[in-house]
Amino acid sequence: MLEKFPDPFLAEISAQPEAIRRAAAGLHDQLAALRRVPAVRNGRSLVFTGMGGSYDACYAPVTALASAGITGVMVDSAELLYFRRPTLAGGTVLVVVSQSGESAEVIRLVEQLNGERGRPFTVSITNGLDNTLARLANVALDTRAGHEQGPSTMTFGAALVVLATRVDMDAGAAADAVEAVLDTVKDRAGQLRAWLGDRPILTLLARGAGRAASEMGALTLKEAARFPAEAMESAQFRHGPLELAGNDAAVVLIATEPATRSVDTRLAAELVAAGAAVLRLVCDGEPVTGAETISLGSVDRTLASAPALVPIQLLAWRLAVDRGFHPGTYTRASKITKHE
To answer: How far apart are CA 261 and CA 266, in angstroms?
Structure first.
């Protein structure tokens, strides 16, 4: 595959549809393991954890579960390790997401928990099962994302599918939506780069399950292009940061939640009126005059972050190229973080 693309990062971006389809097929193959996960009832608590993009993916299931009346919380693994571990009682189902299954904070957390009385029931979600986390978990689930060397692309989309844990969902629609956004990749990347221009402020806004895409998108821009993007919950942006809106600001508004479609449309119009460059990523809805809009089509809200992330990935790739970096390579960080 790599020979078709100028660098591995763009190749991995373009390989996301098949990774999503593999993850969906893998859910069917792992039904026996899924049935071993205890039901969240009778006082059991449900906690999602991870680091980096693995943690960001947890916004989708936490939001979807809350809509169904099920309380799930997400706390990053370092905070659990050092400050909140006593909250993980024996009645807890702990879902631990890690691309590699080897991240330092994640491994140390689960090792310490396994050495305590009344430990939680641990479910791991990793890319492959030949890793330390999968061996430590009570139930180990495989995203089947495939080999990945750059910032999370295939692993992110595949993790969203496994976190949804619904074999009846239409993951194919999400994969198709990713393919549609990837159509004419280089042209799309150039258009997004022109949209950003020389603006030094780039903010990614989202609500609900869409926050998985905004948080992962900001991380990708920092990792791949060394560009200081910030992710915020859309309503929180109104509480002070709205003062950033102006000619120097670019805002990506991920509006994939039906419940907040009207307020997101209003926010986009206000940002345009303030002089900001606005890019809307939507599943449906009316266009906003003065804003760029990319329609993702009809996609399950728990998976909509996969296609919503693609334009941000393409922008990061083009920014990296324009700024003289090798896209998808690390100079200080690494794919597997060995120190807390």
So the answer is: 9
For residue 197, which amino acid is it?
G
Does the structure show a pLDDT above 60 at 339?
no
CB 305 within 8 A of CB 209: yes
Interval 301-332: pLDDT, tens: 999 999 999 999 999 999 999 999 887 776 66
Categorise residue 208: left if φ over 0, alpha if ψ from -120 to 50, beta otherwise: left
| CB-based contacts of 73, cutoff 8 Å, min separation 6 | 45, 46, 47, 48, 62
Give tens-digit pLDDT for 225-235. Answer: 999 999 999 99
- Confidence band, pLDDT 50/70/90 cuts, at residue 3: very low
Residue 137 DSSP SS3: coil
Length of the chain: 340
β-bridge pairing 201-206 and 139-142: unpaired
Sheet of 139-142: strand order equals 72-74, 45-50, 92-97, 121-126, 139-142
CB 141 within 8 A of CB 124: yes
User: H helices within the chain, ranges in order?
Assistant: 8-14, 16-29, 31-35, 52-56, 59-67, 77-79, 104-114, 132-136, 154-164, 171-182, 185-196, 211-225, 234-238, 261-273, 305-322
Q: Which two tokens stand for residue 1?
A: 């595959």
**C-beta of residue 17 within 8 angstroms of C-beta of residue 176:** yes
What are the pLDDT digits (tens) for 127-141? Answer: 999 999 999 999 999
